[in-house]
Specification:
heterodimer; B: mainly beta; Immunoglobulin-like; 7-stranded mixed sheet; 21 strands
Chain lengths: ~190, ~325
């Protein structure tokens, strides 16, 4: 039977590879949508690659998370790095879902508006950045070093909100989501 | 057709069984029955017999309520690449209700710096034998068997989890305490862990003791003696030095009085980096919040900027191929 650490490496490489490809495609799509560097003719290709790679990375992510939990020592999340990894991973999933749902809702119109195309490419890039940061924390946790260590990021500091504040923010977010759906229905 | 959802559910269930069958990275120290679901290998039917030899050693006689030392030696060790090996001390081999506490024993400490019956040790490459020691307070009078068991995987990681157990139990005859025997108080419970850099002043409560001498050592190091001060009737205090890095210190006391001199087992005191704890529920709620906030915030940004009503619009139509 293949052990959880091996499966984690495989699923992590799938996730990070997909997100990295999505990142490059989002850069190209952003440039193409603005008509820069004579890339406009590649917009359709970059758009499809970016969103499909992002979606595939999102599909691979749960496997990376499950095998990561299986292969981590001890029980539960008992290290600041693991908590920050979880927060960044959640934020990345949320942002990536937002990017994909927006693309699904607006279709190719997402590239037709000045601010829309900026938000879409920046949103996709930010999701990719968050995933790469999450992977960097994984490297720091398991091997004690990571390529992003040169930025001296405060991985050991955990920005933890009280549960009541998290609850309120969560309710506001869900309320906003429902308001958006109702607005569309009207 | 409902074939697709059914296939998805079956696939998820198949994945769940393979992922949940074992914890190759261990579960940490704890109080576990043999082969229980809480230890590293959940299903006994999946286990194979370990080739390692497990021997449990204990004194043939112990005094009721007084500490005694039990050691478990594992030889011909084979384990995973990470060297993780789970070791149990058990009161029987039924698989349920078989921790030493179920038979009246009280674990005071173990050599890995805890007070549980299940420990996980990391075996160095090439190391073929390891000994884990427990210090327990003896139960009521009578014969009390103690067994040991191990859990581990293989270096290749391809086969089932392995389980091994001691062939013979160590039977300890617990006898009543003579009236004038110098001994530790039944209420004395030694500390098992402390933070790195923290000095320890220990208070020793005793019964029928007139003099105390305390020795300490680092594992594998020379034995040192510390000054012991009287802190009243049958109470003594002494200082153990702080450690500058995570280390295991062992100490024991020689108790003198009217009865025959007694020596306690070695008690283990583990120095660890200050532990870090967090309320996991708070962290999980915040994670879900972050997910929704980032998703909704991003979708809200687009809400004001895009107009998908014109279905005839084609953002790609200006492209010339």
């Amino acid at each position: 039977m293949v052990s959880a650490p091996t499966l984690h490496v495989v699923s992590t490489e799938l996730t990070v590879g997909s997100f990295a490809m999505a990142g490059v495609a989002f850069v190209l799509a952003g440039l193409a949508s603005h008509g820069w560097f004579n890339l406009k003719r590649h917009l359709k290709l970059a758009d499809h690659v970016a969103h499909f790679a992002l979606a595939f990375g999102l599909l691979a992510m749960p496997f990376a998370m499950v095998t990561g939990i299986q292969s981590s020592p001890g029980d539960g999340v008992d290290h600041p790095l693991l908590i920050n990894k979880m927060f960044l991973g959640s934020a990345a999933i949320g942002l990536a879902l937002g990017v994909l749902l927006t693309r699904r809702r607006l279709g190719e119109h997402v590239w037709s508006d000045d601010w829309g195309r900026r938000w879409q490419s920046l949103g996709g890039l930010s999701a990719v950045g968050l995933v790469l940061l999450t992977a960097s924390i994984g490297g720091t946790f398991s091997r004690g070093e990571s390529l992003l260590d040169l930025f001296k990021l405060p991985y050991d500091t955990v920005p933890l909100m009280p549960v009541w504040l998290s609850g309120i923010v969560l309710l506001v977010a869900i309320g906003n989501l429902l308001a958006m759906r109702r607005g569309r229905a009207v | 057709m409902k074939r697709t959802p059914v296939l998805l559910v079956v696939t998820v269930l198949l994945f769940a069984s393979s992922l949940g069958s074992a914890n190759p990275s261990g579960v940490g120290q704890g109080t576990f029955d043999a082969q229980c679901g809480g230890a590293c290998h959940g299903d006994a039917d999946m286990n194979r017999s370990s080739a390692s030899t497990v021997v449990v050693e204990a004194p043939t006689t112990a005094y009721e309520g007084l500490p005694t030392s039990v050691s478990v030696t594992i030889s011909d060790i084979e384990t995973t690449v990470s060297g993780l090996l789970g070791v149990f001390l058990l009161s029987d081999m039924t698989g349920a209700g078989d921790t030493p506490a179920d038979a009246g024993w009280d674990i005071l400490s173990n050599s890995e710096g805890g007070d549980e019956n299940y420990v996980e040790i990391t075996v160095a490459p090439g190391e073929t034998e390891r000994t884990v020691t427990w210090t327990l307070r003896a139960p009521s009078t009578g014969d009390h068997p103690l067994h040991a068991a191990i859990h581990h995987g293989t270096e290749s990681g391809e086969e089932a989890p392995f389980f091994g157990a001691s062939v013979q139990p160590a039977v300890v005859e617990v006898v009543a305490v003579p009236e004038n025997l110098p001994r530790l108080s039944p209420s004395f419970s030694p500390p098992v862990s402390r933070d790195v850099g923290e000095a320890s002043t220990l208070r020793l409560d005793t019964v029928s003791v007139q003099s105390v001498e305390v020795e300490w050592r680092l594992v594998g190091g020379p034995i040192n003696t510390v000054m012991v001060s009287s802190a009243g009737a049958d109470a003594w205090t002494f200082d153990l030095p702080s450690s500058l890095q995570p280390a295991t210190l062992e100490w024991r006391a020689h108790l003198g009085g009217e009865g025959p001199q007694q020596t306690t087992p070695w008690f283990t005191l583990q120095s660890e980096e200050p532990s870090w704890e967090v309320d996991e529920t708070v962290a999980y709620v915040q994670s879900i919040t972050l997910l929704f906030v980032f998703m909704v915030a991003f979708m809200s940004l687009h809400r004001k900027t895009a107009t998908p009503d014109d279905e005839k619009y084609d953002a790609f139509e200006e492209v010339e191929y």
